[in-house]
Design brief:
heterodimer; A: mainly alpha; B: mainly alpha; about 0% strand
Chain lengths: ~170, ~130
């Protein structure tokens, strides 16, 4: 057991590396499985000292559901932004908002910031050092900026909280 | 290749191309860096998605099995696109890039640069 955890400091990462390697080469030939295995052992060994301990995904099903919610939002975001960009520019009212964060760890915050960037008219710009505030640039701000904050908190943050159980 | 397959692939490619074009048009038309960031991060994801699905349909028809490379491209795109946008916005904050006149809550730029929590009285300052 001790040997195993030393040889594979990140077992799930090793497995993913091997699978992605085989996917990139789109083959399951013995040569590539061997090469992929070597990479899957060597890369985690090199990267393990750099790792910051993270809370893992506790509810994989909820995570999958979250992916679909975000995918749907990305499609809607694309259409909205396309219409805004092609329409009269006078109508665009940009602005910054600071969203109070309620997530304790860096990985959930990263997931939230990435989601914010991919979804309707918002780009995450920075996180405060105490990890309590996410600065967001909004392409077309509604008159009441609380709407944007509520959307991010209710639609995404609450779901991320459930996934990571924090 | 049957007409239906050709039509599907063409429609997907056209939709994809259209959205990538819209992303580029946005990059050209919009007025400051932050607003410009929105066009390529959003419109391009769907544009590339359309082109990739088109490519998958084509490869499926040609080889008889689903080609996985397109899925990987999507995966890497979804991982890297937000990070790039975030770093660009962060760099812009630190360089104090000019914002559009009517950008609201400009006072947040100052605290965001220092990665400090926003000031509580910022709201009242903005109104004046």
């Amino acid at each position: 057991m001790n040997f195993f955890s030393r040889a594979f400091p990140m077992p799930s990462h090793s497995l993913m590396l091997l699978i992605v390697w085989l996917m990139i080469n789109s083959t399951v030939s013995l040569g590539h499985i061997l090469l992929g295995t070597v990479l899957a052992i060597a890369i985690p060994l090199l990267c393990a000292p750099l790792r910051v301990p993270q809370s893992g995904i506790k509810k994989p099903l909820k995570a999958l559901l979250y992916v679909f919610v975000v995918l749907k939002d990305i499609v809607v975001a694309n259409l909205q932004v396309a219409l805004l960009v092609l329409g009269p520019l006078r109508k665009i009212k940009p602005g910054f908002v600071a969203v109070p964060l309620d997530l304790p760890d860096t990985l959930p915050i990263t997931v939230l910031a990435s989601t914010v960037t991919m979804t309707p008219g918002t780009v995450s710009a920075d996180v405060s050092k105490d990890q309590k505030w996410l600065y967001v640039h909004v392409l077309d701000m509604p008159d009441n900026e609380q709407e944007v904050i509520d959307l991010i908190k209710n639609r995404y943050e609450s779901r991320i909280k459930e996934i990571f159980e924090c | 290749m049957s007409f239906a397959v050709e039509l599907t692939i063409s429609v997907l490619l056209l939709i994809g191309g259209l959205f990538v074009l819209v992303g580029s048009v946005g990059l050209l038309r919009l007025q400051d860096l932050y607003v410009r960031l929105h066009a390529p991060t959003k419109a391009t994801t769907l544009g590339l998605g359309g082109i990739l699905i088109g490519s998958m349909v084509y490869m499926f028809h040609l080889q008889g099995h689903v080609s996985i490379n397109e899925l990987l491209i999507t995966l890497f795109l979804v991982i890297t696109a937000p990070v790039t946008a975030h770093i660009l916005a962060k760099a812009a904050l630190h360089n104090q890039v000019d914002t559009m006149e009517r950008t609201r809550n400009k006072h947040l730029i100052a605290t965001a640069r220092e990665q400090l929590p926003p000031e509580k009285n910022g709201q009242s300052k903005e109104k004046t």
